[in-house]
Amino acid sequence: MKVEEIRKMSDEELSSELASLKEELFKLRFQHATNQLDNPAQIAQVKRDIARVMTIQREKQLAANK
Prior knowledge:
Helix content: over 70%
Strand content: under 5%
Shape: elongated
Radius of gyration: 14 Å
CATH architecture: Orthogonal Bundle
Distance between the termini: 28 Å
Structural class: mainly alpha
Number of domains: 1
CATH topology: Helix Hairpins
Number of strands: 0
Order of helices and strands: HHH
């Protein structure tokens, strides 16, 4: 997911995207624990996407407070 795409999202879209990414991370971790995950790098990618979404959310919060 690109940062430009994330920045265009509304606050509600960011919250729903964050929830879906966290759910995906949970599923990937479960698959990894049961040795069903083909590409373990997916976990790191999803974690980075979560961090991106959370960072953009925080930037928007700080911009709204100014």
